[in-house]
Amino acid sequence: SKHSILWVTDFPMFEWNSSEQRFE
Length: 24
Description:
Elements: H1 3-9, H2 11-19
């Protein structure tokens, strides 16, 4: 998953996705 890299560099994005219940 290329998103995995963004997950590490874009932590804020991960939190936002969490709010949207979209971990993947």
